[in-house]
TrEMBL record:
Record keywords, A-Z: Methyltransferase, RNA-binding, S-adenosyl-L-methionine, Transferase
Extent of the signal sequence: none
Lineage, broadest ranks: Eukaryota, Viridiplantae, Streptophyta, Embryophyta, Tracheophyta
Gene3D superfamilies documented for this protein: Vaccinia Virus protein VP39
PANTHER family: NOP2 YEAST -RELATED NOL1/NOP2/FMU SUN DOMAIN-CONTAINING (PTHR22807), SAM-DEPENDENT MTASE RSMB_NOP-TYPE DOMAIN-CONTAINING PROTEIN (PTHR22807:SF16)
Family named by the database record: Belongs to the class I-like SAM-binding methyltransferase superfamily. RsmB/NOP family.
Active site per UniProt: C227
Domain SAM-dependent MTase RsmB/NOP-type residues, every copy: 1-290
Name of the protein: SAM-dependent MTase RsmB/NOP-type domain-containing protein
InterPro entries hit by this protein: MeTrfase_RsmB-F_NOP2_cat (IPR049560), MeTrfase_RsmB-F_NOP2_dom (IPR001678), RCMT (IPR023267), RCMT_subfamily_9 (IPR023269), SAM-dependent_MTases_sf (IPR029063)
SUPFAM superfamilies (UniProt xref): S-adenosyl-L-methionine-dependent methyltransferases
Record-listed S-adenosyl-L-methionine binding positions: D39, D67, D165
């Protein structure tokens, strides 16, 4: 809702799995534009792919297992030489053909033997694990899909909308906290309250936000959200990001005043919480990229 998805938008979802918000974005997008989903956890993104296929929502979507802090693939509609499905296939050998979930037997055996890790590292190249027929991938070569562009070019060829629904401690999610009744409160201490872990998360969140914003075109909008209630993972990230990015401005979120939420610690940011508003916890901030 906060992203204000419009027909024709090219949307990047940088922490996409398991895909609830990605599916909603695809639903709002209709039959133009594209959605690129990225997640570092292969098994979670595979679940997202299953959901897209089950609900027939994946026609305009592509999914990459990749580290969102270094991901650098621009929207498909930005390739001026992008071929349509009908015209592009015969001309080059190395083109992406229509998606098939059935990989050749030899390829599957190789993947099983190599024990591919469940999560990727910064240095691993992105791996395309799904693309829809109208995602713009069909007809491109690998080189075209992974073409690197300068930051200046991203200003005009980047994504119109970016969602960074960042990894966090989930301490605002009532359902998540209830799980610790079974897992034990010591586990809560380690996973949610440990200072080193939350410091690392702050860095990850800032890096995800910074890279998502880099891939946004001038005039585009980015939404940063977490389901944590802490200042460190929300307002502090926003404050530091604004300090480091002079071309970023906080943007008013249309309609937020009518939602069951209250103002965050920084004007134009919003908080949902279980105490006053009887919802799960959520922090939302929206940025726009201005020309400098
Ligand atoms: C809060 S969940 C996202 C939920 C998702 N937006 C949805 O609506 O279903 C955060 C996600 O960030 C992913 N993640 C963690 N580190 C990442 C990284 N460096 N790059 C990309 N994704 C990452 C996790 O695997 C997890 O799936």
């Amino acid at each position: 809702m906060a992203l204000n998805i419009s027909p024709g938008d090219h949307v990047l979802d940088l922490c996409a799995a398991p895909g609830a918000k990605l599916c909603m974005i695809l639903d709002l997008l209709g039959d133009s534009g594209s959605v690129t989903g990225v997640d570092a956890a292969r098994h979670r993104l595979a679940a997202c792919r299953t959901m897209l296929q089950k609900y027939a929502l994946g026609d305009r979507c592509r999914l990459f297992v990749a580290d969102g802090t270094t991901f650098s693939v621009i929207p498909v509609g930005s390739h001026s030489d992008c071929k349509t499905f009908e015209s592009g296939l015969e001309e080059k050998d190395d083109v992406f053909k229509e998606w098939t979930s059935r990989r050749p037997w030899k390829e599957r055996r190789k993947a099983n033997r190599s024990g591919i890790p469940q999560s990727v590292s910064k240095s691993q190249p992105p791996e395309l694990i799904y693309y829809g027929r109208h995602s713009g991938v069909v007809g491109l070569t690998k080189g075209e899909l992974y073409k690197t562009v300068s930051d200046d070019e991203i200003g005009s060829h980047g994504y119109n909308k970016v969602l960074v629904d960042a990894e966090c401690t989930h301490d605002g999610s009532v359902k998540h906290i209830q799980k610790f009744e079974n897992w034990g409160w010591g586990t809560l201490q380690r996973r949610v309250l440990d200072a080193e872990r939350t410091d690392n998360l702050h860095v990850l969140q800032l890096n995800l936000l910074t890279n998502g914003f880099r891939l946004l075109r001038v005039g585009g909008s980015l939404v940063y959200s977490t389901c944590s209630l802490t200042l460190a993972q929300n307002e502090d990230v926003v404050e530091q990001f604004l300090k480091e990015n002079v071309n970023a401005e906080l943007e008013e979120i249309d309609g937020a005043r009518n939602w069951p939420c209250k103002s965050g610690g920084i004007p134009k940011t919003w908080r949902f919480d279980p105490f006053t508003l009887q919802t799960s916890g959520l922090f939302v901030a929206k940025f726009t990229k201005v020309a400098i």
